[in-house]
Amino acid sequence: MWEYYEGKVILITGGSGFLGTTLVYRILQKAPCSHIFLLYRRNLSNLRELWNQWLPEEIVLKMLDPKRVTILDGDITKPECGLLVSNINMLRDKVNIVVHCASSINLVHPLGRISQNIIGATEWLANFALQLTNLERFVYVSTAYTNTHLFHATPEGDVRVKEQIYQLSATPNVQLEWSEVQKKGSSVEYQSNNFPWAYAYAKQLTERLLYDIFSCTGSSHKLLILRPSIIGPAQKYPYPGFSFPLSTPMTIFTAATALWPTLWARISTRYERPETEATNDEVPVDVVVDRLLTHLAFGTTGPVHAVSGGHARQTCKGLSFSLSLSARRLIAPSKSTKYGTAWSGLEEEISWLGG
C-alpha cells in the first residue's frame, strides 16, 4: 500500500501529540511521500525538546529533516487555525492529504468551552481542504465513544455501534444545530440525547458536520473518519511501550493502582457482574496509525473503527490480573456496590485493592 503515498504532500494537525507523533514517524519510516507539513503552535525548538524526551535522537533528527518536514506556526483554537495568509496559499497549491488529529480530549469542560476547539476548527479545516487544488483525502480522527448516547437505545450491556453516521433526529439540520451551539453553548439535540460528556457530543456533531460539508460538494468519497478506542502504548514502533505522559489512560490507572493501597473506581454498567462482564477496550497507538494509513491508501470512506475488538478486550477481572503482574502486588476488584439509576442505568462501584 505504501506506493500510494509516493509523491504525496500531507498536512497534519496534532502532529506533536501522542498519536500524531507516531503517525509522523510511521509515514517517514515507510511512505515515500514528498513532504509533510505539521501545524504546531510553538516553535521548532519546542517540538525538538518535546520529542527528545521520548524518542532517540537519531529518530528526532529524521522527523525534523527540513527536506521532508516543515513546521508551520498555527493554532486550531484561533481563526483560520492561526495560519499566515502566505502559508494558506502555499498549502492550497501543494497539499494532497489532510489528517486532522488535533483536538481537545477534556471530558469535564462544558460544550460551550470545547465546541470551537473540536467543531469549529474542524469545520474551517474541512472547508479549507475542499479549496485545495489537488485534494485527494481528508482524514478526521474522532473517537469510538462518539455515539455513547446509543446506550439508551438498547437494554443490552454491550452496545453495538456500526461504522456509520448516526443522526440525532428524523429531520436533521446539522448547520442549524451547529449555529445553535455557537450561540447558546448547547442545542436541542444535545439536551434531547443522553451523552455522558460534552466531548462525546462535540465529536458526534463534528462527524455529522463533516459528512454534510463533503456530501454537499460531491466529495464524500474523499472523507475518512477514524474512531479509535482507548489508545495505549505502542506495540512495535517507534519502540515497544512508547507513550506520552497522561496520553494512555490505562497506564495512568496502572501507576495510580501501584502507588495507592486502595483505589476506588466507579464504572457505569448494566451488568450484574461487572468484574467478569464489563470490558476495557485499549488499542496500541501504532495499530491505530497503521489502520489509518491503510484505510487512507485503499480509499475507504466514512467512519472506520480502530478498536481491540470483542476477543481482545479485557474484563475488569482480567485487567486486575494484568495490573497485578505489572505492579508485582495483589490488585483485585474486591467489592461491587449498586447505586441508583444514573447516566447508564446502574452504576457499579468497584474497590481495587493494592497491598
What is the topological layout?
Layout (H helix, E strand, L loop, with lengths): L8 E5 L4 H13 L4 E6 L3 H11 L2 H7 L5 E5 L11 H10 L2 E4 L10 H19 L7 E5 L32 H11 L3 H5 L5 H19 L6 E6 L1 E3 L16 H11 L2 E7 L5 H4 L1 E2 L1 E3 H13 L4 E5 L7 E2 H12 L3 E8 L8 E8 L1
Parallel strand pairs: 1-2, 1-4, 2-3, 4-5, 5-6, 6-11, 7-10
Antiparallel strand pairs: 8-14, 9-12, 13-14
GO cellular component, one term: peroxisome
Function: Catalyzes the reduction of fatty acyl-CoA to fatty alcohols.
InterPro entries: FAR, FAR_NAD-bd, NAD(P)-bd_dom_sf
By CATH, the architecture is named 3-Layer(aba) Sandwich
**What's the mean pLDDT score?**
86
Number of domains: 1
Question: What is the CATH fold-level name?
Answer: Rossmann fold
- The proportion of strand residues reads 15-25%
Report the helical percentage.
Answer: 25-40%
Shape: globular
Over the alpha carbons, how many angstroms does the gyration radius reach?
A: 21 Å
What is the strand arrangement across the widest sheet?
A: 3-2-1-4-5-6-11
- Count the beta strands: 14
Q: How far apart lie the N and C ends? A: 49 Å
Structure characterization notes:
The chain has 12 helices and 14 strands. The chain is of the alpha/beta class. The protein has a single domain (2-244, 282-310), classed as 3-Layer(aba) Sandwich (Rossmann fold). It has a 7-stranded parallel β-sheet with strand order 3-2-1-4-5-6-11, with helices on both faces. Helix 1 (18-30) crosses helix 11, helix 5 (111-129) runs parallel beside helix 8 and helix 6 packs across helix 8. It starts with 8 loop residues before the first strand and ends with a strand. Catalyzes the reduction of fatty acyl-CoA to fatty alcohols.
